[in-house]
Amino acid sequence: MRSVLRRIFVASLLKRRLGSALSLLSIALGVALGLAVQIIHGAALAEFGQGVRRMSGVADLQVVGPREGFDEALYVRLAQRPEVAEASPVVEVDALVPGLSAPLRILGVDLFRVAAVEPQLLPVAEDKVGAGAGAESDRLAALRQDAVFLSAEAEASLFDDQGGVGTSAPRRLTVQSGLRLQELEVAGKLPGARARIGVMDIAAAQDSFDRAGLLTRIDLRLAAGVTPGQALAALTPLLPAGVVLRTVDEAATEAANLSRAYRVNLNMLAAIALLTGGFLVFSAQWLAVVRRRREFAVLRALGLERGQLVRGLLAEGATLGCAGGLLGVALGHGLAALAFRFAGADLGAGFFQGVVPALHFDPLSSTAYLLLGIAAGVGGTWAPAREAARVVPARALHAAGLPASAGGSGQGRTFAALAVLAAAVAASLLPAVGGIPVGGYASVVLILAAAILALPPLAMLASRLLAAGRWPVWRLVRARFVASPQQVVVAAAGVVASVALASAMAIMVNSFRLSVDDWLTQVLPADLYLRASSASASGYLDDAALQRIRALPGVAGVDAVRAINLRLDADSTPVTLLARPVAQGWGLPLVDGTRTPAHDARRPPAWISEAIADARALKPGDRLDLPIAGALHAFTVAGIWRDYARQHGAVVIERADYVALSGDGRINDISLRLADVGDGDRVASALRELFGSDRVEIARPGEIRAVTLQIFDRTFLITYLMEAVAVAIGLFGIATTFAAQAATRKGEFGMLRHLGFTRRDVGRLLALEGSLACLMGVLAGLLGGGGVSVVLVEVINRQSFHWSMDYAVPWRALGLFALGLVVLAGVVARLAGAHAMRRSAVLVVKEDW
Amino acid sequence: MRHSPSPRWMEQGSGGFVHAILHRLQAVLFLLFATLAALPPAAAADFATVRPDVALSFPRDLGAHPAFRTEWWYVTGWITDETGSDRGFQVTFFRVRTGIGERSASRFAPTQLVLAHAAIADPAAGRLQHGERAERALPPLAGAEEGRTRAWIRDWLLEWDGTRYRARASTDAFSFELDFVPGDAPLLNGRGGFSRKAPDPRHASHYYSRPQLNVDGTLTLDGRRHVVRGSAWLDHEWSSELMPERANGWDWIGINLHEGGSLMAFRMRDGDGQPMWTALTFVEKGHIRRGEGQDAVRFVPLRVWRSPRTGAAYPVEWRLELPPAEPGERTRQLRLVPLMDDQELDSSRSTGAIYWEGAVRLLETTDDAGAGEADGVSREIGRGYLEMTGYANRPRM
Domain containing B60 — which CATH number? Predict the structure, then answer.
């Protein structure tokens, strides 16, 4: 029996090749996309986490503080504690290499300590094999104050040639600290390191990068018998404010947290693509079931049980899902490989710079996504199989038509749709769980379901509106709509999901982009910007430089920004502290509070970004303690501002307050206001002359804006791609439906031809039907998409990224998209039916009778 | 005479002692090797030079002399536990001025390094057990104090408190905490503590010894704690340019005599194994005899032991010939016998430095008939340490 079943059911997939292929492909695409996102992120995270672990060696605990560092006295104190077996101090500097866009991470380590704690950082002096005695005497010294050791990755990125020949001349590396250039000698390699890093002696690093007295990290190995928990309890009281002790695993998960929201969002998009695939399977299977009614009736008459019929059909779906899933798994790995090659591990989002992940087969995710594919296949077949089982054999043997009752009453559907919609609204009000907007995602799924449930009522409504026309083709279309709205529903279901997804994303991205653009205008009010390096790297400016700039002719005003990072508490990721003039300065996009608060010397004002306001439930007037220079200082929240640049939050304080508390007079960015805006080029060249063109970056707000928007668009590249795929899947749905319908309607077409319809008329009929079905789907999809976009903007983005945006619908683009889709659906339907129309009318009619 | 982490030694691989000292910390060693090899020649003006006209003064000179390139406090001795088992021990602290980072503003500036080495010679184990540490001087974690003896690397320590020395060291295999009480004032070697190492007086060190230290303390070995007593020897030596270029290795002894005296002797060997320079400080019955020159003392190898690990052949038994102090006297003949043969310190797996450093007994033949000492009846007159370098094949890294 099993082999018979297999022949009847699974083999039938082979008979309807196009339908099967499209269903399979859509499942494959959904699986592939989801899996690719998973693999790429998994690999990047694993690499990043391993990187953190490798960098930390065999350390049990790590002491970390602000990026700028903390007092080295802590190392001496910790190293003497009985809980600590080994302590290794580290100064991490992102050294600016003039002429290179990416700074080089240099770790200043105590070479005598790394062996016990971070053996992977041990340098090996360059082996001068075959060099003469002269070379022997100037053998490179690891402790030497200008010696730097490079990992293979760093060396490859810094030097074009791979060495080998003529390496007797030592390689030199110029790095920038502040505005000062410093020449280092590449003294050897780091065979154990697998990241783009360099290692120097800790004293050399402190001297070279003006970090005297500062460390950024201490790696600890605990004494035998001391648990990390005990050590945490004993050592934490010794830490100055803003410095935390954590396990190495926590350090690795910090990276995961950084990108989690982004990753979850992408995964959800993939899941929606898969869902769309499921709809497609549903529509294909539904039609197949309809077409095979007589076949099933015969089988039932021959003794096939109801359950067997259902199981057989489900097996069909499972086979389809499995094949699609397998194809998807292969495709997903291929996509991931391509992404690694061309886009980097962060899919353009910039989370994992410098991480070079390798593509590995991921059995767990692959299995999970394969199962999802099968679930989509089985799920899509579920309703059609139930429908087929309900058929009474005797009746079905006679009538080849479609079942009349395929989906309950329109009114029932309307209520169901409204109920689901209400559930969606309720879900969207739920708070985030662990930083992930679970309620928001549930709401998205529910809205999609509601949109599909709303299709039949929409179709009924449409059929009423169609009544007006007199043209025969038009009337035929209407007759069909009224007679079997279910078929329209089936054809449009795939379109609904994909259009909803695409339009929701389009609205969200449009809102986001407009908001970012607007925000850029607010935060970049100056005429010219000057910086020595990005905030984290080793270049910086100082007050002397500021004075010199102020004295330049044509400069009307200057504002200085100091950017550091700090940890508000042990558990949270670091936030950015921006010290700049606020009350007299310009460019702070406030959403709440004021730029000019009442003066309070004991509690200076702080302006926090939305992320911090959300995470700590702060509002203007609240107290905020900031760890600056190793001590906690109280501030008053004066306002909340919108910040798209720093997802984990930023705090702005007056630069004067910062300098008074920390004594740190360094400056990262200077914004210049010019007396005459047209004077930009002249002032820019004067600045270059003043500081050396290789040591500073000068940017116009327009350039910064262009680059930012470019990064923005790149970030959403993957989203656009997914949208395209989803829409393609939706169109596949229409094509499958119409191909299948056309086959069953050969008789009808023959009759129409017999009655005087030309082939072209039949084609028009098909195209119109396709377009109308698609229009239904598009309308439902746009409605659903509108709802989903509200959830995306107000719930999902707010909860995952903590940023607000102004809702803005790209009406024209959406209109064009809808119109294009409807036209395309007509074309697709016409093409799908071409086969059925090709045969001679007489022949077809004869055959049918 | 002690081995030192002088750059030239490392360069030539003739001693490679610092390597051996840091046996396990291969890479650290390599760094150090590279560091020291890259040092400017000792003639560079910024290293203090050893001069014959400088008189040593105590307690000041018990402390560190950071202006000189290398310095060490080197304690060796015999200890007996409560069951009567004899063991040898050794604990050494080196201070090295690297010449690097002297203008640095950083507290971590590697201008001064401190290295330490500890070993136990236990006949029951059949070979040496040893451990080592290396750090940049960074008080209070590691350093070498001026003005009094105090050198330490975290919990490893050698310290003079005015009446006694205290040494502490621990490794995975053993740990000890020992007190040393000297009987006498520091004993100056060479001429007033100016100890030449070669015909060229440039190669010299400031060098004093503290023989006959009474040892009292505890040794934990294989998890068992022993109360130990014994007798030890401390050498303190500092210089900027020690080893002559032609030198290939040396043999050194420091022996406490049972009757209260002491014997320090060394010879520097050239590439052919011929003595280039020898020296002697011999205290017996309150009388001090010092000698320096080509022939102040003769080392005659008697029995060779071949290391099964490295294949190096060490003369583990020696005849020492002390030439007549005054005309008409006989040449004095003494014999050195090791506590155990295998006291080789093999770090060929890490740095390639291999040498022999072990506990020995000093015997004197009582037969005055003029027959060879092999036929005579030998009496143990002292115990101490023998160090032999430059016997292993030059290792390849």
Answer: 2.40.370.10
